[in-house]
Amino acid sequence: MRVFPWGFWLLCVASAPARGDSGSKARSCAEVRQLYGAKGFSLSGVPQAEISGEHLRICPQGYTCCTSEMEENFANKSRSEFEAMMKEAGRSVQATLTAQHRSFDSYFQDLLNKSEKALYDAFPSMYGELYTQNMKVFKDLYSELRRYYRSSNINLEEALNEFWTRLLERLFKLMNPQYHITDEYLDCMVKHAEQHKPFGEVPRDLKVKATRAFIAARSYAQGFLVGSDVVKKVSQVSLSHECTRAIMKLMYCPHCRGMSSVKPCNNYCLNVVKGCLANQADLNTEWKYLMDSLIVVADRIDGPYNVDTVIGTIHMKIAEAISNLQENKDSITAKVFQGCGNPKISTKSSSSEDKKRRGKVTLEAKSSAQALEMLVLDAKGNLTALKTYWITLPSSLCSKKVMASSVSDDKCWNGMTKGSYLPEVMGDGLANQINNPEVEVDITKPDMTIRQQIMQLKIMTNRLGNANIGNDVDFQDTSDDMSGSGSGDSCPDDVCGKRLSKSPSTRQPETHAIPKQSGHGVNGASSRSLPSASLLLLLSVAVIAPQHLWR
Fold first, then answer.
1. Where is this chain compositionally biased, Low complexity type (predicted)?
2. pLDDT exceeds cutoff 60 at 314
3. 0.90 exceeded by the pTM?
């Protein structure tokens, strides 16, 4: 009988595929069959007991309960499940930001509505025909204020100047019914009368305070929408092929190896998820800037800009201005006649009794400052909690969704077998994944969808920075697609064009694009074309310099 050397037998033993237990009998695949069926797959062809795993392409090639088809199905299932986890986490953030927007938007709209209603209720008895014959002027003002707040391409200072000019023209004619006053004469009258402040200091005071309040309120509301839109778009980014393999190995390979009860090692899970979400983590810096900017503007709204008082008392300011004009009627008229000449006497007889103020009516403003304070307090708490969303997402998914083991567990699934996980945990972001042991990441090819969303965060943060100091940056309504289209070689007038102001001192705002506010139809701007991808890159140059000052 031929005798083989001992080394040969040792080599055979060492090279034999390892089993999950010490016995030589193949283990049952009952657990993985149950899981496979529960995932909606047919059990036809699923092994009853372990088979050799040389056919596997993702899981370790030891004894296994998975065929090639099962491995592929599990890989596709792990991909869809992980993407669903991402979307679910994103929906939670979206819900928080949308709820904050809805709460503030409802409060602000209600504030404006109450001011308008108070004007409609009180002015007929206060001013008679001075009001009833000029209702449209007042309605147009509130309409313009709402359109501005809803992001139409309106210059707020110009809209306020236009209101005072139209009101002065109408009231001057009504207070001087015995004269035939032409449009040409009114143009002259406006030029001379404005030098003598017919409405007192009210127009200037209201313009300063209302402009700051509206800019802050509009930017604040839009900031929540932009944040929510960014999360929505980023949550829809598909996983790479390398990531799909890594997720499969993390979530389903232990089942194939007959270790269904063994949880993935926590650090192993973190490396897989950090590799898969490397691009998403790069949102962190600009995302934190946006959250911080919203908090700062929230303090402005409830503090120096005093939105509750300014917006809630617009009708009272208008009444004060009209009273100033009535009290100074004779001197203003005399100065206008001196500068423009005496208008012709009208042949129509008219009684001016009803045009005079009928009686003193006290206007009151119901304060909702406490409601605003609570809104801001709640918003600041939520914004603070969301600051680290993108860099804490891997640990959140591993602990709550993947159900990884504790950090100190040395009997967890490490990607190959049950044991400890030795590699160090990678840092956050694309650049830190160069040596990720679990996911092959090309750090030279960032995801362009996410880069575009980083740009949207920068633009919105810049807008909030301007709002914080009372400067306006105008946003146009757009569709949900913020990525842009076209070659970007030119900037059409309907995107970059700015209204020409009648007043040379009126500062025109910059223009950027924001997602459309749901539930508020806005005429005029909603059909405009979007800025191209090249335009977004050009805008980055414009926003980076102010951002450094703001930060």
1. 481-494
2. yes
3. no
